[in-house]
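Justification of resources, computational component.

The compute hours requested in this renewal are based largely on the per-chain cost of generating structure records like the one below. Each record pairs the submitted sequence with a full structure-token output. That output is archived, and it is also reused by downstream analysis tasks.
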Amino acid sequence: MTHRTLPRPLPGQSPAGPVSAVSSRIPTDALKMSVHGLGPWYVLGVDIGTTSVKVVLLEAESHAVVDSQTQETRAALSSPEGQQAREQDVGKIVSALHCCVMALPRERLGRVARIGVSGQMHGVVLWNEEGCKWQEVEAGFTFQPGETSHLVTWQDGRCHNDFLASLPQPDSHLTLASGFGCATLFWYTRNRHQFLQNFTAAGTIQDYVVAALCGLRKPLMSAQNAASWGYFNTRCGTWNLQILTESGFPTRLLPDIMESGSVAGKTICEWCCVPEGTDVGVALGDLQCSVYCCMANKTDAVLNISTSAQLCFALPPNFQPPDCPNTTSSVAYFPYLDGMYLAVAAALNGGNVLSSFVSMLKQWMQEFGLDVPDPTIYSQAINSALSVAHTDLVVEATVFGERHLPGRLGCVTNISPCNLSLGHVIRALCRGVVNNLHSMLPVQWLAESGVRRIVGSGSALARNPVLKQELEKIFTLPIVYREMADSAVGVAMVMLDRV
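The structure output for this chain reads:
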């Protein structure tokens, strides 16, 4: 294999900052002509999730998903910081990404004219100017991480409440929490300061992928991802540089900000058969992309249950968030597109609660000398719950806490000899996940805000009919479910519709 490092700056970018969103927009007719020959052209959508990577090909004229691939990353790592730390291997994430892309039809990859990238919000990965190395393979080139840190994910819990209280107050309407990029960088500054000296840039994992594809010396970040890091004022679209500098924060690592939905650059190599020079959008948040994919009407709310869970709806175009955060509120206001905001109940507890229960059952069975695969356990658990129409067992499914109530953990009550079967427990667990969301954003609040329908999506919801049943009992608005509706599709749609 041929190895080469390509840390080129963004074409058209001056040392003063990134190319403007307006100058990066390309008319659709010109874009079609950029694809070799005539015929259909495609948008490649990429979503880098907490546990898996998904890629889709969206046919431009029909807006139809014509191909998709998904692969688990299996990237979780143990950390010297203990059980509260949540870190992932960037190399394994990138490898899963390449496997997904290379599994798509080559003739269609050769007709990709735009690439959209979304991913898990809040987390942070660090790299230097040679953060990736390109390798020549049969299908063009792939890139491999060079000098990068581990990805510290949104689930990281090392920034405990006392630590967060010691940090300066952000000039932002959003509350700071453990797992947020700036909080993590503050933790490194105070606990492993020398570690940060090895790197020149930081971003989310999706920002890293965009920087690698475009050869950016300094990463670009959308307002969506910047807001998820903390210390970002969404009204003026800038970092709290004075506050951060006065507190000894390494502001040199912060990315430049770019308008959400704009082009960050062009691919510097033929990437897995995708042509060199293909437009790459600035990375977006997975939440916003899943909403864009699902929200057909302004009166829709979108519910996504994957690893975590989010329930949100779009606010009026003239809405402006408050000046200061409300640390006890279960609803936050995240930037969307075109200056609009989403009202979001972002729960830390979703499909991960059920995964933890399956892992517990697996461990118990292993202690009895039995080794049952996770899919078998999960399938049997759901089937058992489907045979139980109702249970009086009560499970508060907040086993991972919540940002607005960090000390509130899971609890099981009303236990009796009659409700301890697997079916009863799974039914109560699913109801607990939905009840937690409802406590954060009640159906009455949705209705009063003009919401007339809920659109459900997400991998955990799609494969769990019990979760759907409990959702329909608790949220009394009409509910529809979207297939092939996720962040990978959403980011491809953004690149097709808005760039």
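The first helix runs from residue 21 to 24. The two ends are 35 Å apart (CA to CA).
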